[in-house]
Structure formats: C-alpha cells, structure tokens
Amino acid sequence: MAESSSSLPPLCEKISYKSYFQRAADLTILGLLFSLLLHRILHMTQNDNVWLVAFLCESCFSIVWLLTTCIKWSPAETKTYPDRIDERVHDLPSVDIFVPTADPVREPPIIVVNAVLSLLAINYPTNKLACYVSDDGCSPLTYFSLKEASKFAKIWVPFCKKYNVRVRAPFRYFLNPLATTKGSEFSRDWQMTKREYEKLCRKVEIATGDSHWSDADDDFEAFSNTKPNDHSTIVKVIWENKGGVGDVTEVPHFVYISREKRPNYLHHYKAGAMNFLVRVSGLMTNAPYMLNVDCDVYANEADVVRQAMCVFLQGSSNPNHCAFVQYPQESYDSTTDTLTVFQSFMVRGLAGIQGPIYLGSGCFHTRRVMYGLSPEDVEANGSLSSLATRELLAADSLPRGFGNSKEMVKSVVEALQIKSNPQHILTNSIEAAQEVGHCDYEYQTNWGKTIGWLYDSMTEDLNTSIDIHSRGWTSSYVSPNPPAFLGSMPAEVSEALLQQRRWLTGSMEVLFNKQSQSLSYFIVSCLLIAYSTTLSCFPR
Ligand SMILES: O=c1ccn([C@@H]2O[C@H](COP(=O)(O)OP(=O)(O)O[C@H]3O[C@H](CO)[C@@H](O)[C@H](O)[C@H]3O)[C@@H](O)[C@H]2O)c(=O)[nH]1
Ligand SMILES: [Mn+2]
C-alpha cells in the first residue's frame, strides 16, 4: 500500500480556478437583482397584483442566480501524477469494472465489444482487474460477441501493452493508418492484429443477421425460450485469469451476467443492474474499488485506473476522504453538447465545494461507501471503528440489509473490514451469483434504499451522490486532456439531440463561454440597470 511520507511529492493536487473578474461580475448582477427586489418591496403597497407577480418571478430568478453564483464560486479539479504511483505503491488495489448494456439493437454488440476491449487492455496489473458485463437485454448475440471478443483480447491486450497504445478501443485505433515502414516487427504485429479485429467484426455481423446460429451450441442453452423481460438469471464466466500474476500477456477476468426478469417485477433500470453487478463482483472478486462505464463509452486513456488510484491512495490515511472519482463525460462524434457547458461550470464548481456529483458513466466508487459506510465508521488507519464493527457487523443486521445469501454476507464483511481477498476460483461462485440475481432477492433489504445505487428517482446518479455527500464523504473530479473516456452517439440520436438542444446550448454558451462571458455580463448588467432605472422613473 502507499508509503506515507509528507516529504514525498503528492500523487494528486486539487487545482482551483478562481476568477476574480467572474466573481465581481456575478456579485454586481446579484447586487442589481437585490436592489430590484428591494424596489419592488418598497413600492408594494402602492401597486396592484401584477406588481406582486413580477416580484415573485424576479425572486425566483434571483434565488436561481444566487445558487448558481454560489456553485460557480470556487471551481476546482484534481490533477493526478500516475508516474509517481509506481515508485510509491508496490501493491495496487483491485478494481472491478462494470459495463451495463440493455438492448442489442440500440447498443450494437460491436460497440459493447469495443468498450470492453478498451477496458480489458487498461494499463494496470492484469491480476487486479475484473470486467463484468450486465446484459438487461438477455441477448445471446451480446454473449456470443463478448465470447469472441475475449478470444481477440488475447492478441489485443498484449499488443497494446507491448507498443504502449494509448487509445485501446480497436475501432478507434485502426482508424489511423499504419505509420511505420513495412517489414518491421511492429508493422507485422499491427497488420496481424488488424486482420484479427476485422475477423471479429465479421463474425459479429454474420451472427447479427442469422438467428439460428446458437441453436446447436450447449453454451447458449440458457438463452433458449427467454425474453428480455422474462427469463432466469444467467451467469457465465467467459474468461478466468487463473493464477494470474499481472503479466502483460494476461487478460483480466471477464464475466457475463443477466439478472432474472419477470413481467410483474420492477427492475429499476440501470440502478438495478448496477446493484446486481455489485453483488456478483462481491462474490467473485470483491475488489475495494469499482469502475462504472456505460456500454457505448470506451477508455480513451490507458492510464485511467492509475489516475483514479492517485486520488484514492493519496489520502488513504484520511478517513474523511474521497468516496468517488468522477471523470467528465464527453463524446467523440458530437461537437455541441450541453454537458460540456454543464460540466465546465456546475460540476467543476461543485468539485470546489464537497466534490462533483456522480454523473453516471466514467466513475470510480469505493465498495465500502456503496455498502453504506460513513466517515465516522472509519479509523485513521482505514479500519472499522469498534462501534461500527459492533453495529454494522452484527449477525442479524447484515442479512436484513444485504439479503439472505450467506456468501454475500461473508463478502460484505470482508469488504467492510478491507480483508485482502484470497484468490479463489470464479466458477465456484456461479450458484451464489445466480441466487443474488433473483427478482425478489432485494425484497425487504436495504438495496436501493441505503445500500448501492439508490432507486426511485429521476436519475439514480444524482440521488446516489446526494446520499454519499450527505453522509460526509467528499469526491473528486479528474478531467485530463485528452479526455479519459469517450462515448459515442449514433448519428440519428446525435441529430435529434442537436435539434432539441441547439437553442438551449446556444444560449447557455453565450452566457457561459469564456470569450463571450464578459460581453454577456455587460449586456445582462446593462439590461438590469435599464430595467431598474425605467422602474424608478415611473413610480406609481
Ligand atoms: O434497464 C436498463 C437501462 C439502461 N441500462 C444501461 O445503463 C447505461 C445508461 O443508460 P442509457 O439509456 O444509455 O442512458 P443515457 O442517457 O445515455 O446515459 C446517461 O444517463 C445515465 C442514467 O442516468 C447515466 O448513468 C449515464 O452516465 C449518462 O450518460 C447504458 O449502458 C445502458 O445499457 C441498463 O443496464 N439497464
Ligand atoms: Mn447511453
């Protein structure tokens, strides 16, 4: 683990982006708004209901402006130094990677395959990684494509590590032509790897067109007579890195899961899938950190896990430390995005207060925090306090909170006590994994209430991060350049979004864009001054 010495350079630093001009401008507008409200109040008795309605509307706007000003007040983000982690941390912690997918038509398997390959090839000890794909579509085609991808991974992962490839999603990597002389070792490897990738794409394409290919294969029996909303739990260990030592030729564990679905049961969409992923990974690898990547997003930076570890391990002796590390969401095939504006002002602003909100994809969580731990439950050295040990690990409270699986309860105890996980065989946990995938497993437990991803909100992301922050944890926003993760947007979605968002994005950009910010402040101030002057010239 990390050596603690204050004389060593930090693994990460919080960088503030205070702008005194922006603060002055925000305060001026706030001042003008309040004087306007004061004017309304002072002349309230001499005026009619229209005056009152105007006052209420302006009050709402002023409150929104005040909140926005507070959030934007001290923007920050975290800069990491992944090179330093190698000298300092000799035994990096394990990470379980979750990729949820739901629909083989809207999320074509080749996209999911690329997301998964980019993650399997990440620059991190292979024996410390495990990748779990949850398929809410219960699609044999997705399972077939992932199985084929795992075969290609045995060529792709060593290739990426040997030549230090940065973008490890093959479809992006092979967009660039070979930039070296023919006949060299690299060029031979490159061409062979490209041929294998093209073979993989063809296999997936042929399987997409033909619906009978899986009939004769026993491995696909679990998918016979299933519907996406009516089937039993399926757990398949696609690849197990048995006896892995972290060598560059190894491929991390790779597991396919699809939880039970029945027509009359609520399944809670992505949040439900995430909680099932947490349980299955708890039973199989129980890593202390979890990374969540949507199936149409790939790792654009091979060092993304080491960067996140810089944040988690920097303050590992500080109990009031980071619960999650969020990377920005960006897409490579869309130029205008409301998200960019939202992230650069609001998320960075929040990052300067208690930490950014959880945005969904591209986020690392600590398992213990998702199991409901609060900062006061943790001692300075990271172990559980004696009070927390008594309360949280009480024999009757664990099954009540986490459900009736004995194996699950055992894995929760180990995770809360940060016991190192003795390597065990993944396939031995298949039965337990199927049990925790039952529709009614979560019935009368705390899953979705105080444990895991929370249910019953417009977006599980916001609700979950509010809960984590309200317990007293902080979070970090790491925004490297080029971005760590990139999502894709199918052309039609991207066009529809553009139509829908063009006006909003345009106007937000005018307000927030760096170049036009001073101008927009000037215009807003002029309008407010003109408005207040007009009002005071015509007092009634
Ligand atoms: O029943 C479901 C529905 C969705 N998903 C998966 O969840 C992810 C996100 O769902 P999607 O419908 O693609 O939502 P988006 O609007 O594209 O994603 C935004 O909204 C999500 C949910 O609020 C966030 O997690 C994402 O990071 C954010 O980009 C995808 O990988 C889906 O396959 C499931 O696994 N099961
Ligand atoms: Mn999506």
UniProtKB/TrEMBL annotation:
Subcellular location: Endomembrane system
Chief location category: membrane
Lipid bilayer topology: Multi-pass membrane protein
Stored InterPro entries: Cellulose_synth, Nucleotide-diphossugar_trans
Membrane spanning residue stretches: 20-38, 50-68
Keywords for the protein's UniProt record, in alphabetical order: Cell wall biogenesis/degradation, Glycosyltransferase, Membrane, Transferase, Transmembrane, Transmembrane helix
Protein name per Swiss-Prot or TrEMBL: Cellulose synthase-like protein B2 isoform X2
UniProt source species: Camelina sativa
